Amino acid sequence: MNSRQTKPETLIARPDADGNGIDGSQRAIRDAIRDAIVDRRLMPGTKLTETDVGALFNVSRTLVRGALQALVHEGLVTVERNRGAFVANPSPEEARQIFATRRIIEPGILTEAARHMTPSHFRQLREQLVDEGRLMSERGQSARRAEIKASGDFHLMIAAMTGNAVMQRFMDELIARSSLVISLYGQSTVSSCGHSEHTEIVDAIEAGQLDRANRLMVHHIRHIEADLDLRIRRANELRDVLLP
Amino acid sequence: MNSRQTKPETLIARPDADGNGIDGSQRAIRDAIRDAIVDRRLMPGTKLTETDVGALFNVSRTLVRGALQALVHEGLVTVERNRGAFVANPSPEEARQIFATRRIIEPGILTEAARHMTPSHFRQLREQLVDEGRLMSERGQSARRAEIKASGDFHLMIAAMTGNAVMQRFMDELIARSSLVISLYGQSTVSSCGHSEHTEIVDAIEAGQLDRANRLMVHHIRHIEADLDLRIRRANELRDVLLP
DNA sequence: CGGAGCTCGATTGTATACGATCTGGCGGAT
DNA sequence: ATCCGCCAGATCGTATACAATCGAGCTCCG
Protein backbone atom coordinates (compact mmCIF):
# COMPACT_ATOMS: atom_id res chain seq x y z
CA MET A 1 0.00 0.00 0.00
CA ASN A 2 1.59 3.16 -1.12
CA SER A 3 0.79 5.93 1.28
CA ARG A 4 1.25 8.74 -1.20
CA GLN A 5 -0.43 9.41 -4.46
CA THR A 6 -1.29 13.10 -4.44
CA LYS A 7 1.16 15.91 -3.89
CA PRO A 8 2.44 14.93 -0.47
CA GLU A 9 3.22 18.27 1.09
CA THR A 10 -0.27 19.56 0.81
CA LEU A 11 -0.65 18.24 4.32
CA ILE A 12 1.34 21.07 5.77
CA ALA A 13 0.68 24.56 4.63
CA ARG A 14 3.92 25.51 2.97
CA PRO A 15 4.03 29.29 3.12
CA ASP A 16 4.72 29.49 -0.56
CA ALA A 17 8.31 28.59 0.22
CA ASP A 18 9.99 31.70 -1.05
CA GLY A 19 7.34 34.32 -0.79
CA ASN A 20 6.30 34.27 -4.38
CA GLY A 21 9.52 33.54 -6.10
CA ILE A 22 9.03 31.08 -8.89
CA ASP A 23 5.94 30.01 -10.65
CA GLY A 24 4.08 27.19 -12.27
CA SER A 25 6.11 24.62 -14.08
CA GLN A 26 9.37 25.53 -12.46
CA ARG A 27 7.91 25.16 -9.00
CA ALA A 28 6.30 21.87 -9.95
CA ILE A 29 9.64 20.51 -11.10
CA ARG A 30 11.41 21.75 -8.01
CA ASP A 31 8.81 20.23 -5.73
CA ALA A 32 8.81 16.93 -7.58
CA ILE A 33 12.56 16.60 -7.33
CA ARG A 34 12.59 17.71 -3.72
CA ASP A 35 9.99 15.16 -2.79
CA ALA A 36 11.89 12.47 -4.61
CA ILE A 37 15.05 13.36 -2.71
CA VAL A 38 13.42 13.62 0.68
CA ASP A 39 11.60 10.38 0.01
CA ARG A 40 14.79 8.63 -0.94
CA ARG A 41 13.52 7.74 -4.35
CA LEU A 42 16.54 9.67 -5.63
CA MET A 43 19.68 8.51 -3.90
CA PRO A 44 22.41 10.97 -2.97
CA GLY A 45 24.93 11.40 -5.73
CA THR A 46 22.43 10.73 -8.48
CA LYS A 47 23.11 12.91 -11.47
CA LEU A 48 20.30 15.21 -12.51
CA THR A 49 20.90 15.81 -16.18
CA GLU A 50 19.09 18.89 -17.33
CA THR A 51 17.95 17.47 -20.62
CA ASP A 52 16.64 14.29 -19.02
CA VAL A 53 14.68 16.11 -16.34
CA GLY A 54 13.32 18.48 -18.93
CA ALA A 55 12.18 15.62 -21.10
CA LEU A 56 10.32 14.11 -18.16
CA PHE A 57 8.36 17.29 -17.62
CA ASN A 58 8.20 18.38 -21.24
CA VAL A 59 9.95 21.64 -20.63
CA SER A 60 13.18 23.14 -21.81
CA ARG A 61 16.43 23.16 -19.90
CA THR A 62 15.76 26.75 -18.88
CA LEU A 63 13.09 25.83 -16.38
CA VAL A 64 14.99 22.81 -15.17
CA ARG A 65 18.01 24.93 -14.42
CA GLY A 66 15.86 27.28 -12.40
CA ALA A 67 14.41 24.46 -10.37
CA LEU A 68 17.84 22.95 -9.77
CA GLN A 69 19.23 26.27 -8.68
CA ALA A 70 16.46 26.59 -6.12
CA LEU A 71 17.30 23.15 -4.79
CA VAL A 72 20.96 24.08 -4.56
CA HIS A 73 19.88 26.94 -2.35
CA GLU A 74 18.06 24.52 -0.10
CA GLY A 75 21.09 22.30 0.17
CA LEU A 76 19.46 19.32 -1.48
CA VAL A 77 21.39 19.51 -4.72
CA THR A 78 24.94 20.43 -5.54
CA VAL A 79 26.30 21.55 -8.86
CA GLU A 80 29.82 21.21 -10.12
CA ARG A 81 30.80 23.59 -12.82
CA ASN A 82 30.66 22.07 -16.25
CA ARG A 83 29.78 18.72 -14.74
CA GLY A 84 26.18 19.15 -13.72
CA ALA A 85 23.81 18.81 -10.80
CA PHE A 86 23.71 15.93 -8.35
CA VAL A 87 21.55 14.97 -5.45
CA ALA A 88 23.45 16.26 -2.44
CA ASN A 89 25.70 13.91 -0.56
CA PRO A 90 26.05 15.62 2.80
CA SER A 91 29.25 14.95 4.68
CA PRO A 92 29.19 13.78 8.30
CA GLU A 93 30.31 17.24 9.30
CA GLU A 94 27.43 18.80 7.42
CA ALA A 95 25.08 16.36 9.08
CA ARG A 96 26.36 17.40 12.48
CA GLN A 97 25.87 21.05 11.61
CA ILE A 98 22.32 20.45 10.49
CA PHE A 99 21.38 18.77 13.73
CA ALA A 100 23.28 21.30 15.80
CA THR A 101 21.20 23.98 14.13
CA ARG A 102 18.03 22.10 14.82
CA ARG A 103 18.91 21.77 18.49
CA ILE A 104 19.29 25.51 18.62
CA ILE A 105 16.22 26.49 16.68
CA GLU A 106 13.58 23.97 17.58
CA PRO A 107 13.20 24.73 21.26
CA GLY A 108 12.65 28.34 20.33
CA ILE A 109 10.12 27.31 17.75
CA LEU A 110 8.35 25.10 20.23
CA THR A 111 8.12 27.92 22.72
CA GLU A 112 6.76 30.29 20.13
CA ALA A 113 4.34 27.74 18.72
CA ALA A 114 3.00 26.88 22.17
CA ARG A 115 1.92 30.48 22.59
CA HIS A 116 -0.35 30.14 19.58
CA MET A 117 -1.74 26.68 20.06
CA THR A 118 -5.48 26.19 20.18
CA PRO A 119 -7.40 22.97 20.78
CA SER A 120 -7.67 22.64 17.03
CA HIS A 121 -3.90 22.64 16.75
CA PHE A 122 -3.61 19.91 19.35
CA ARG A 123 -6.14 17.87 17.44
CA GLN A 124 -4.03 18.27 14.33
CA LEU A 125 -0.93 17.13 16.19
CA ARG A 126 -2.72 14.12 17.65
CA GLU A 127 -3.84 13.07 14.21
CA GLN A 128 -0.30 13.32 12.99
CA LEU A 129 0.82 11.10 15.86
CA VAL A 130 -1.76 8.52 14.93
CA ASP A 131 -0.51 8.50 11.36
CA GLU A 132 3.03 8.06 12.55
CA GLY A 133 2.01 5.15 14.71
CA ARG A 134 0.24 3.48 11.86
CA LEU A 135 3.23 3.82 9.54
CA MET A 136 5.53 2.53 12.25
CA SER A 137 3.74 -0.76 12.37
CA GLU A 138 3.88 -1.28 8.65
CA ARG A 139 6.64 -3.09 6.86
CA GLY A 140 8.53 -2.42 3.70
CA GLN A 141 10.54 0.28 2.06
CA SER A 142 7.70 2.57 1.21
CA ALA A 143 6.44 2.50 4.77
CA ARG A 144 9.92 3.30 6.00
CA ARG A 145 10.05 6.28 3.66
CA ALA A 146 6.65 7.47 4.68
CA GLU A 147 7.71 7.14 8.29
CA ILE A 148 10.74 9.37 7.86
CA LYS A 149 8.57 11.82 6.03
CA ALA A 150 5.86 11.77 8.67
CA SER A 151 8.42 12.22 11.41
CA GLY A 152 9.66 15.34 9.66
CA ASP A 153 6.14 16.55 9.13
CA PHE A 154 5.60 16.55 12.86
CA HIS A 155 8.38 19.07 13.31
CA LEU A 156 7.18 21.12 10.36
CA MET A 157 3.70 21.17 11.77
CA ILE A 158 4.94 22.74 14.96
CA ALA A 159 6.96 25.27 12.99
CA ALA A 160 3.87 26.18 11.02
CA MET A 161 2.05 26.90 14.26
CA THR A 162 4.42 29.73 15.11
CA GLY A 163 2.84 31.72 12.31
CA ASN A 164 6.35 32.85 11.49
CA ALA A 165 7.03 32.30 7.81
CA VAL A 166 10.72 33.02 8.12
CA MET A 167 11.26 30.34 10.71
CA GLN A 168 8.98 28.01 8.85
CA ARG A 169 11.14 28.27 5.77
CA PHE A 170 14.29 27.62 7.72
CA MET A 171 12.66 24.55 9.21
CA ASP A 172 11.52 23.37 5.81
CA GLU A 173 15.11 23.40 4.71
CA LEU A 174 16.42 21.79 7.87
CA ILE A 175 13.88 18.98 7.78
CA ALA A 176 14.49 18.27 4.12
CA ARG A 177 18.21 18.10 4.67
CA SER A 178 17.71 15.98 7.76
CA SER A 179 15.74 13.48 5.75
CA LEU A 180 18.56 13.32 3.29
CA VAL A 181 21.06 12.79 6.08
CA ILE A 182 18.96 10.09 7.69
CA SER A 183 18.61 8.29 4.41
CA LEU A 184 22.40 8.36 4.08
CA TYR A 185 23.57 7.63 7.58
CA GLY A 186 20.56 6.23 9.39
CA GLN A 187 21.00 2.86 11.02
CA SER A 188 18.61 0.32 9.68
CA THR A 189 16.81 -0.64 12.83
CA VAL A 190 15.02 2.18 14.45
CA SER A 191 13.88 5.77 14.10
CA SER A 192 10.69 4.33 15.46
CA CYS A 193 11.66 5.37 18.96
CA GLY A 194 11.03 8.86 17.76
CA HIS A 195 7.33 8.33 17.73
CA SER A 196 6.85 7.94 21.44
CA GLU A 197 9.06 10.96 21.95
CA HIS A 198 6.80 13.01 19.73
CA THR A 199 3.86 11.92 21.83
CA GLU A 200 5.62 12.88 25.03
CA ILE A 201 6.39 16.28 23.60
CA VAL A 202 2.79 16.97 22.70
CA ASP A 203 1.70 15.73 26.11
CA ALA A 204 4.09 18.09 27.80
CA ILE A 205 2.96 21.07 25.77
CA GLU A 206 -0.66 20.33 26.40
CA ALA A 207 0.04 19.99 30.10
CA GLY A 208 1.60 23.42 30.03
CA GLN A 209 5.00 22.06 30.91
CA LEU A 210 6.90 24.06 28.37
CA ASP A 211 10.31 23.60 29.91
CA ARG A 212 9.84 19.89 29.93
CA ALA A 213 8.66 19.97 26.32
CA ASN A 214 11.76 21.87 25.33
CA ARG A 215 14.03 19.47 27.10
CA LEU A 216 12.25 16.57 25.45
CA MET A 217 12.62 18.19 22.07
CA VAL A 218 16.34 18.70 22.40
CA HIS A 219 16.70 15.19 23.70
CA HIS A 220 14.65 13.91 20.81
CA ILE A 221 16.82 15.65 18.22
CA ARG A 222 19.93 14.36 19.91
CA HIS A 223 18.37 10.96 19.82
CA ILE A 224 17.79 11.09 16.10
CA GLU A 225 21.35 12.21 15.56
CA ALA A 226 22.69 9.46 17.82
CA ASP A 227 20.98 6.95 15.61
CA LEU A 228 23.19 7.98 12.70
CA ASP A 229 26.43 6.32 11.90
CA LEU A 230 28.60 9.26 10.98
CA ARG A 231 31.88 7.42 11.22
CA ILE A 232 31.97 6.33 7.65
CA ARG A 233 30.74 8.09 4.62
CA ARG A 234 28.38 6.02 2.62
CA ALA A 235 29.75 5.73 -0.88
CA ASN A 236 27.31 6.83 -3.48
CA GLU A 237 29.78 8.38 -5.79
CA LEU A 238 33.22 7.01 -6.21
CA ARG A 239 34.70 10.45 -6.56
CA ASP A 240 33.53 11.32 -3.07
CA VAL A 241 35.32 8.37 -1.56
CA LEU A 242 38.48 8.41 -3.58
CA LEU A 243 39.50 12.02 -3.60
CA PRO A 244 38.83 13.94 -0.45
CA MET B 1 34.90 59.66 2.87
CA ASN B 2 33.34 56.56 1.47
CA SER B 3 34.19 53.68 3.71
CA ARG B 4 33.90 51.04 1.04
CA GLN B 5 35.69 50.66 -2.18
CA THR B 6 36.60 47.01 -2.46
CA LYS B 7 34.18 44.13 -2.24
CA PRO B 8 32.75 44.79 1.20
CA GLU B 9 31.96 41.33 2.39
CA THR B 10 35.48 40.08 2.13
CA LEU B 11 35.74 41.11 5.74
CA ILE B 12 33.74 38.17 6.88
CA ALA B 13 34.45 34.78 5.46
CA ARG B 14 31.26 34.01 3.67
CA PRO B 15 31.12 30.22 3.50
CA ASP B 16 30.55 30.36 -0.21
CA ALA B 17 26.97 31.28 0.59
CA ASP B 18 25.24 28.32 -1.00
CA GLY B 19 27.83 25.62 -0.84
CA ASN B 20 29.00 25.92 -4.38
CA GLY B 21 25.85 26.84 -6.15
CA ILE B 22 26.44 29.49 -8.72
CA ASP B 23 29.57 30.72 -10.30
CA GLY B 24 31.46 33.65 -11.63
CA SER B 25 29.47 36.39 -13.26
CA GLN B 26 26.17 35.33 -11.83
CA ARG B 27 27.52 35.41 -8.31
CA ALA B 28 29.15 38.77 -8.93
CA ILE B 29 25.85 40.23 -10.06
CA ARG B 30 23.99 38.75 -7.14
CA ASP B 31 26.52 40.07 -4.65
CA ALA B 32 26.59 43.50 -6.22
CA ILE B 33 22.82 43.82 -6.05
CA ARG B 34 22.68 42.41 -2.55
CA ASP B 35 25.26 44.89 -1.33
CA ALA B 36 23.41 47.72 -2.97
CA ILE B 37 20.19 46.66 -1.26
CA VAL B 38 21.71 46.13 2.16
CA ASP B 39 23.55 49.41 1.80
CA ARG B 40 20.37 51.25 0.92
CA ARG B 41 21.75 52.42 -2.38
CA LEU B 42 18.77 50.62 -3.89
CA MET B 43 15.59 51.62 -2.18
CA PRO B 44 12.82 49.09 -1.53
CA GLY B 45 10.39 48.91 -4.40
CA THR B 46 12.98 49.79 -7.01
CA LYS B 47 12.40 47.89 -10.20
CA LEU B 48 15.22 45.67 -11.34
CA THR B 49 14.73 45.35 -15.06
CA GLU B 50 16.58 42.37 -16.40
CA THR B 51 17.80 44.08 -19.54
CA ASP B 52 19.09 47.09 -17.66
CA VAL B 53 20.97 45.08 -15.08
CA GLY B 54 22.37 42.90 -17.82
CA ALA B 55 23.57 45.95 -19.70
CA LEU B 56 25.37 47.20 -16.60
CA PHE B 57 27.32 43.97 -16.28
CA ASN B 58 27.58 43.19 -19.97
CA VAL B 59 25.80 39.89 -19.67
CA SER B 60 22.60 38.52 -21.05
CA ARG B 61 19.31 38.34 -19.24
CA THR B 62 19.95 34.68 -18.51
CA LEU B 63 22.55 35.39 -15.87
CA VAL B 64 20.63 38.29 -14.46
CA ARG B 65 17.59 36.12 -13.97
CA GLY B 66 19.68 33.61 -12.09
CA ALA B 67 21.08 36.26 -9.80
CA LEU B 68 17.63 37.72 -9.17
CA GLN B 69 16.19 34.32 -8.40
CA ALA B 70 18.89 33.76 -5.81
CA LEU B 71 18.03 37.09 -4.20
CA VAL B 72 14.36 36.15 -4.17
CA HIS B 73 15.37 33.12 -2.17
CA GLU B 74 17.13 35.32 0.33
CA GLY B 75 14.09 37.51 0.69
CA LEU B 76 15.77 40.63 -0.65
CA VAL B 77 13.93 40.72 -3.96
CA THR B 78 10.41 39.87 -4.97
CA VAL B 79 9.16 39.05 -8.40
CA GLU B 80 5.67 39.50 -9.77
CA ARG B 81 4.78 37.35 -12.69
CA ASN B 82 5.01 39.21 -15.98
CA ARG B 83 5.85 42.39 -14.14
CA GLY B 84 9.40 41.90 -13.07
CA ALA B 85 11.68 41.95 -10.05
CA PHE B 86 11.70 44.60 -7.35
CA VAL B 87 13.78 45.31 -4.31
CA ALA B 88 11.80 43.74 -1.49
CA ASN B 89 9.49 45.92 0.54
CA PRO B 90 9.06 43.92 3.73
CA SER B 91 5.81 44.39 5.59
CA PRO B 92 5.78 45.25 9.28
CA GLU B 93 4.63 41.73 9.94
CA GLU B 94 7.57 40.33 8.02
CA ALA B 95 9.86 42.62 9.96
CA ARG B 96 8.49 41.28 13.22
CA GLN B 97 9.01 37.73 12.06
CA ILE B 98 12.59 38.42 11.10
CA PHE B 99 13.43 39.83 14.49
CA ALA B 100 11.48 37.13 16.29
CA THR B 101 13.60 34.60 14.46
CA ARG B 102 16.77 36.40 15.42
CA ARG B 103 15.77 36.43 19.06
CA ILE B 104 15.39 32.69 18.86
CA ILE B 105 18.51 31.87 16.92
CA GLU B 106 21.13 34.30 18.11
CA PRO B 107 21.41 33.24 21.74
CA GLY B 108 21.99 29.71 20.52
CA ILE B 109 24.60 30.96 18.11
CA LEU B 110 26.28 32.94 20.81
CA THR B 111 26.46 29.91 23.07
CA GLU B 112 27.89 27.77 20.31
CA ALA B 113 30.34 30.43 19.19
CA ALA B 114 31.59 30.98 22.74
CA ARG B 115 32.65 27.36 22.87
CA HIS B 116 35.01 27.95 19.96
CA MET B 117 36.38 31.37 20.77
CA THR B 118 40.11 31.83 21.02
CA PRO B 119 42.01 34.98 21.97
CA SER B 120 42.39 35.66 18.27
CA HIS B 121 38.63 35.67 17.90
CA PHE B 122 38.26 38.17 20.69
CA ARG B 123 40.85 40.36 19.05
CA GLN B 124 38.81 40.23 15.84
CA LEU B 125 35.66 41.22 17.72
CA ARG B 126 37.40 44.10 19.49
CA GLU B 127 38.63 45.44 16.19
CA GLN B 128 35.11 45.29 14.86
CA LEU B 129 33.91 47.25 17.87
CA VAL B 130 36.51 49.91 17.24
CA ASP B 131 35.36 50.23 13.64
CA GLU B 132 31.78 50.58 14.77
CA GLY B 133 32.73 53.29 17.22
CA ARG B 134 34.58 55.20 14.57
CA LEU B 135 31.65 55.07 12.14
CA MET B 136 29.28 56.12 14.87
CA SER B 137 31.06 59.39 15.35
CA GLU B 138 31.01 60.24 11.67
CA ARG B 139 28.28 62.19 9.97
CA GLY B 140 26.47 61.81 6.73
CA GLN B 141 24.48 59.25 4.80
CA SER B 142 27.33 57.04 3.82
CA ALA B 143 28.54 56.80 7.40
CA ARG B 144 25.03 55.89 8.46
CA ARG B 145 24.97 53.14 5.88
CA ALA B 146 28.34 51.86 6.88
CA GLU B 147 27.19 51.87 10.48
CA ILE B 148 24.19 49.69 9.76
CA LYS B 149 26.41 47.40 7.78
CA ALA B 150 29.04 47.23 10.50
CA SER B 151 26.44 46.54 13.12
CA GLY B 152 25.25 43.57 11.09
CA ASP B 153 28.79 42.41 10.54
CA PHE B 154 29.22 42.08 14.28
CA HIS B 155 26.44 39.53 14.43
CA LEU B 156 27.73 37.75 11.35
CA MET B 157 31.17 37.57 12.85
CA ILE B 158 29.83 35.74 15.85
CA ALA B 159 27.87 33.40 13.62
CA ALA B 160 31.02 32.65 11.66
CA MET B 161 32.75 31.64 14.89
CA THR B 162 30.37 28.77 15.43
CA GLY B 163 32.03 27.01 12.52
CA ASN B 164 28.53 25.98 11.52
CA ALA B 165 27.98 26.83 7.88
CA VAL B 166 24.27 26.08 8.02
CA MET B 167 23.65 28.55 10.80
CA GLN B 168 25.97 31.03 9.22
CA ARG B 169 23.93 31.02 6.06
CA PHE B 170 20.71 31.52 7.98
CA MET B 171 22.28 34.45 9.76
CA ASP B 172 23.51 35.91 6.49
CA GLU B 173 19.96 35.98 5.31
CA LEU B 174 18.54 37.33 8.55
CA ILE B 175 21.09 40.12 8.77
CA ALA B 176 20.59 41.15 5.17
CA ARG B 177 16.85 41.27 5.62
CA SER B 178 17.25 43.11 8.90
CA SER B 179 19.28 45.78 7.17
CA LEU B 180 16.52 46.17 4.64
CA VAL B 181 13.94 46.45 7.40
CA ILE B 182 15.98 48.99 9.30
CA SER B 183 16.42 51.07 6.20
CA LEU B 184 12.66 51.03 5.76
CA TYR B 185 11.37 51.46 9.28
CA GLY B 186 14.34 52.70 11.28
CA GLN B 187 13.84 55.91 13.18
CA SER B 188 16.25 58.56 12.16
CA THR B 189 17.98 59.22 15.43
CA VAL B 190 19.73 56.27 16.84
CA SER B 191 20.86 52.72 16.20
CA SER B 192 24.02 54.02 17.79
CA CYS B 193 22.94 52.71 21.15
CA GLY B 194 23.62 49.33 19.65
CA HIS B 195 27.33 49.86 19.79
CA SER B 196 27.73 49.91 23.53
CA GLU B 197 25.50 46.86 23.71
CA HIS B 198 27.83 45.03 21.40
CA THR B 199 30.70 45.90 23.66
CA GLU B 200 28.85 44.69 26.71
CA ILE B 201 28.13 41.41 24.98
CA VAL B 202 31.75 40.81 24.11
CA ASP B 203 32.75 41.74 27.66
CA ALA B 204 30.31 39.25 29.06
CA ILE B 205 31.51 36.45 26.82
CA GLU B 206 35.12 37.14 27.62
CA ALA B 207 34.31 37.15 31.31
CA GLY B 208 32.77 33.73 30.89
CA GLN B 209 29.32 35.04 31.79
CA LEU B 210 27.52 33.27 29.03
CA ASP B 211 24.05 33.58 30.53
CA ARG B 212 24.52 37.27 30.87
CA ALA B 213 25.80 37.53 27.31
CA ASN B 214 22.74 35.70 26.05
CA ARG B 215 20.41 37.95 27.98
CA LEU B 216 22.22 40.99 26.64
CA MET B 217 21.96 39.66 23.11
CA VAL B 218 18.22 39.13 23.31
CA HIS B 219 17.81 42.52 24.88
CA HIS B 220 19.94 44.05 22.17
CA ILE B 221 17.85 42.55 19.39
CA ARG B 222 14.68 43.68 21.09
CA HIS B 223 16.23 47.09 21.34
CA ILE B 224 16.93 47.27 17.64
CA GLU B 225 13.39 46.21 16.92
CA ALA B 226 11.98 48.74 19.36
CA ASP B 227 13.74 51.43 17.41
CA LEU B 228 11.63 50.65 14.37
CA ASP B 229 8.40 52.40 13.61
CA LEU B 230 6.27 49.55 12.38
CA ARG B 231 2.96 51.35 12.68
CA ILE B 232 3.01 52.81 9.24
CA ARG B 233 4.30 51.30 6.10
CA ARG B 234 6.67 53.54 4.30
CA ALA B 235 5.34 54.02 0.81
CA ASN B 236 7.77 53.04 -1.85
CA GLU B 237 5.26 51.49 -4.14
CA LEU B 238 1.75 52.78 -4.35
CA ARG B 239 0.34 49.34 -4.94
CA ASP B 240 1.59 48.31 -1.50
CA VAL B 241 -0.22 51.14 0.20
CA LEU B 242 -3.44 51.16 -1.69
CA LEU B 243 -4.39 47.52 -1.78
CA PRO B 244 -3.58 45.81 1.49
C1' DC C 1 50.63 -5.39 -23.25
C1' DG C 2 50.30 -0.75 -21.19
C1' DG C 3 50.07 4.12 -21.39
C1' DA C 4 49.91 8.82 -23.60
C1' DG C 5 47.46 11.58 -26.74
C1' DC C 6 43.57 12.48 -29.53
C1' DT C 7 39.00 12.69 -31.27
C1' DC C 8 34.10 12.51 -30.61
C1' DG C 9 29.87 12.52 -28.14
C1' DA C 10 27.43 14.23 -24.31
C1' DT C 11 26.43 17.93 -21.29
C1' DT C 12 26.78 22.32 -19.54
C1' DG C 13 27.19 27.74 -19.87
C1' DT C 14 25.56 31.72 -22.05
C1' DA C 15 23.34 34.26 -25.54
C1' DT C 16 19.70 35.10 -28.51
C1' DA C 17 15.01 34.52 -30.52
C1' DC C 18 10.18 34.51 -30.27
C1' DG C 19 5.64 34.51 -28.36
C1' DA C 20 2.87 36.25 -24.32
C1' DT C 21 1.56 39.79 -21.21
C1' DC C 22 1.38 44.14 -19.33
C1' DT C 23 1.41 49.44 -19.65
C1' DG C 24 0.34 53.69 -21.48
C1' DG C 25 -1.37 56.71 -24.97
C1' DC C 26 -4.42 57.85 -28.78
C1' DG C 27 -8.88 58.30 -31.01
C1' DG C 28 -13.71 57.78 -31.42
C1' DA C 29 -18.18 57.37 -29.31
C1' DT C 30 -21.38 58.91 -25.89
C1' DA D 1 -15.41 66.34 -21.43
C1' DT D 2 -15.18 61.53 -20.20
C1' DC D 3 -14.91 56.86 -20.92
C1' DC D 4 -13.97 52.72 -23.57
C1' DG D 5 -11.43 50.09 -26.79
C1' DC D 6 -7.41 49.53 -29.66
C1' DC D 7 -2.59 49.81 -30.82
C1' DA D 8 2.36 50.06 -29.93
C1' DG D 9 6.30 49.75 -27.02
C1' DA D 10 8.43 47.57 -23.29
C1' DT D 11 9.30 43.65 -20.53
C1' DC D 12 8.87 39.10 -19.18
C1' DG D 13 8.58 33.73 -19.84
C1' DT D 14 10.25 30.00 -22.30
C1' DA D 15 12.53 27.70 -25.94
C1' DT D 16 16.21 27.18 -28.87
C1' DA D 17 20.98 27.91 -30.72
C1' DC D 18 25.77 27.93 -30.35
C1' DA D 19 30.15 27.72 -28.05
C1' DA D 20 32.96 25.68 -24.31
C1' DT D 21 34.13 21.99 -21.47
C1' DC D 22 34.43 17.38 -19.84
C1' DG D 23 34.83 12.37 -20.11
C1' DA D 24 35.24 8.08 -22.56
C1' DG D 25 36.98 5.25 -25.77
C1' DC D 26 40.06 4.69 -29.42
C1' DT D 27 44.39 4.65 -31.65
C1' DC D 28 49.10 4.62 -31.89
C1' DC D 29 53.54 4.20 -30.04
C1' DG D 30 56.85 2.40 -26.82
TrEMBL record, chains A, B:
Top-level taxon of the source organism: Bacteria
Key words, A-Z: DNA-binding, Transcription, Transcription regulation
Region described as Disordered: spans on this chain: 1-23
Annotated ranges, domain HTH gntR-type: 23-90
Gene Ontology molecular function, alphabetical: DNA binding; DNA-binding transcription factor activity
Entry-linked InterPro entries: GntR_C (IPR011711), TF_FadR/GntR_C (IPR008920), Tscrpt_reg_HTH_GntR (IPR000524), WH-like_DNA-bd_sf (IPR036388), WH_DNA-bd_sf (IPR036390)
CDD domains reported in the protein's UniProt record: WHTH_GntR (cd07377)
PANTHER family, sorted: HTH-TYPE TRANSCRIPTIONAL REPRESSOR NANR, TRANSCRIPTIONAL REGULATOR, GNTR FAMILY
Protein name according to UniProt: GntR family transcriptional regulator
Source species of the chain: Ferranicluibacter rubi
